[in-house]
Amino acid sequence: MSSHLITIQTPSQVNDIGFSPNGKQVVSGNSDNSVCIWDALTGDLVKELKGHTGQVRSVAFSPDGKQVVSGSSDRLVCIWDALTGDLVKELKGHKSQVWSVAFSPDGKQVVSGSNDRSVCIWDALTGDLVKELKGHTSQVWSVAFSPDGKQVVSGSHDKSVHIWDALTGDLIKALKEQYLAGSGDKLLTLKTIESAYDVYQWSINYHTGWISSKSGHILLWLPEQMCSAVYTPNTRLILSSLPPTHVTFDSRYLGTSWAKIFPLNG
Predict the structure, then answer these.
(1) Does residue 230 register a pLDDT over 90?
(2) What Cα–Cα distance (Å) separates residue 153 from each residue in 20, 119, 136, 143, 220?
(3) 98-107, pLDDT tens digit by residue?
(4) How far is 2 from 7, CA to CA, in rounded Å?
(5) What is the 8-class DSSP label of residue 239?
(6) Side-chain half-sphere of 149: how many Cα atoms within 13 Å?
């Protein structure tokens, strides 16, 4: 099987690209406000779609390859006819630039994520706003539908991933990393990166390694040689004379069994 490299010379900086479902075309979103459709075999420009007044941040083909959706810094989401290059619909509602767009698996809806912290689900036929999903505390960088179209996932600058019910708009799950933070007052705190609000507060006995709640209940235990390292702020990395060790919250052990988290040798 022979292969060859195709280099497509675009008119300006490319912010996003995607293949058509049949792999015969490529769509690009460009910093000169244009959307370009290219022949993937020859590299020739097939259509240049003009209508945005700001940089095009995100582009995607519809599942049947007949349409293209684009999101721009002009706050618009546009749906285009991939064959004629005509603008089919302008989806208006975002209050700031749009970073990410995607079609649903059946091509009937479009999802978009914006600098305005919202995730919007649109009717691709009418252009109507179906649902506005609010919950992120910073700009939404990336969005996508699940393979069955029943859920939407969004990733944000707020360091969280949200999974939403595409029908009701309800937030199903917010995926947030947690970390241990310590301070000079010998208080160990479990925090979430998104909010940095305290979840639990523990006091630690540096001689025994036992960590207790404010009420005095024993919660967990740290190996003695690692106790002094809980002063390290905003990290799950414990620094000690041993090789660096990460605290994991994937498994939970109570009392002395908590030591199983640390695979110490010798």
Answers:
(1) no
(2) 22, 9, 12, 6, 34
(3) 999 999 999 9
(4) 17
(5) P
(6) 11
8 A C-beta contact, residue 49 and residue 87: yes
Q: Model pTM?
A: 0.67
Query: Would you give the end-to-end CA distance of the chain in angstroms?
Result: 55
Residue 12 contacts by C-beta under 8 Å, 6 or more apart in sequence? 30, 31, 32, 34
- Category of 254 on φ-ψ map: left (φ > 0), alpha (ψ -120 to 50) or beta: beta
Q: What is the pLDDT of residue 240?
A: 39
Burial code (b: 16+ CB inside 10 Å, e: under 16) for 219-229 equals bbbbbeebbbb
Give the residue from 94, 92, 172, 104 showing the smallest Cα distance to 135: 172
The amino acid that residue 81 corresponds to is D
DSSP 260: G
Handedness of CA 232, 238, 239, 244 (dihedral sign): negative
